[in-house]
Amino acid sequence: MLARCLSSLKFADEIIVVDAHSSDQTVEIAKAHGAKIISRPWSGFAAQRNVGLEQCSGDWVFFLDADEEASSLLGERLTKVARDQHNRHPNCYSIQRIEYFLGRRLKYGPGNPSHQWRFFKRNAVRFEGEVHEYPKFAGPVGMIDEPIFHWPDLGIEKFLTKMNHYTSIEALEKFSQGQRTSLFHAIGTFFSTFFKNGVRYRGLLNGKEGFILTLLESFSRVVRHLKLWLLWQVYEGRLNVDLGIKLPTPGSTRPVPTTELEKPEWTGRP
């Protein structure tokens, strides 16, 4: 997966991989693709991205996760922007991301078509947020339709592994913001999520793959609520369960500012 990601970045002047002391083959794979390795303890998504940002030497920075790959057309487009006059472009470009599940491209469902803030002027952006990181920058957002491909080999097993990881992070984030839930709400959220993702956002139009994914997404939402419920039960002493972590004080963090999610669109042309 990482090899495919790095192989798609041949157009880049430099490749930087921030590694949180992984025990797999990450470092070896990165070195084989000529990447600069930054090894440091895990300190949160925003902090890791900022460390990578600080190590870059170019005027523009493109962020790509290990389960993604850049299309050849995207590489050409980003190279064109980077070589153009700096002041002709916004501080951030949002890039189309094409999603897959069980080998099928997803044309419908929440977030499809999807665009992600990934291409920035290096000196004009910082990442914030303790759990769900977001870029902080000034001005409007440009749009690029040449795509990023997201996890073309995503299947049920990988979805469940990813789900378990991220539902724990999301539950802890909600807890630290002081949000509560209940078992009744956890049950109800399965049906509301299935309707929203499958019907409202037309995820069921993706065929049998869309039906399976909608089921999994609905189950994922239930698991997040159950984990949040458990955190409160332990915090308030109703259950004696070793979570293996020190719980933060509820209400100690705040959600991502809405203004950061509503940047205006750039009207200029790259």
Can you characterise this structure?
- By secondary structure, this protein is α+β, with helices and mostly antiparallel strands.
- It folds into two domains: 2-153, Spore Coat Polysaccharide Biosynthesis Protein SpsA, Chain A (Alpha-Beta Complex); 156-235, no CATH class.
- It is 39% helix and 19% strand.
- The protein has seven helices and ten strands.
- The strands form three sheets. Strands 3, 4, 5, 6, 7 and 10 form a six-stranded mixed sheet that branches. A two-stranded parallel ribbon has the order 1-2.
- Helix 5 (156-176) packs parallel to helix 7 (207-235) and helix 6 (183-200) packs antiparallel against helix 7 (207-235).
- The mean pLDDT is 92.
Q: Features of this protein?
A:
single chain, 270 residues, alpha+beta, Spore Coat Polysaccharide Biosynthesis Protein SpsA, Chain A, six-stranded mixed sheet, two-stranded parallel ribbon, 10 strands, 19% strand
Helix/strand-derived class? alpha+beta
Order of H and E elements: HEHEHEEHEEEEEEHHH
Helical proportion, percent range: 25-40%
What's the mean pLDDT score? 92
| Count of individual domains | 2
Radius of gyration: 20 Å
Question: In the CATH scheme, what's the topology name of the largest domain?
Answer: Spore Coat Polysaccharide Biosynthesis Protein SpsA, Chain A
Put simply, the count of helices is 7
Give the termini separation. Answer: 31 Å
The CATH superfamily of the largest domain appears as Spore Coat Polysaccharide Biosynthesis Protein SpsA, Chain A
Our estimate of the beta-strand percent is 15-25%
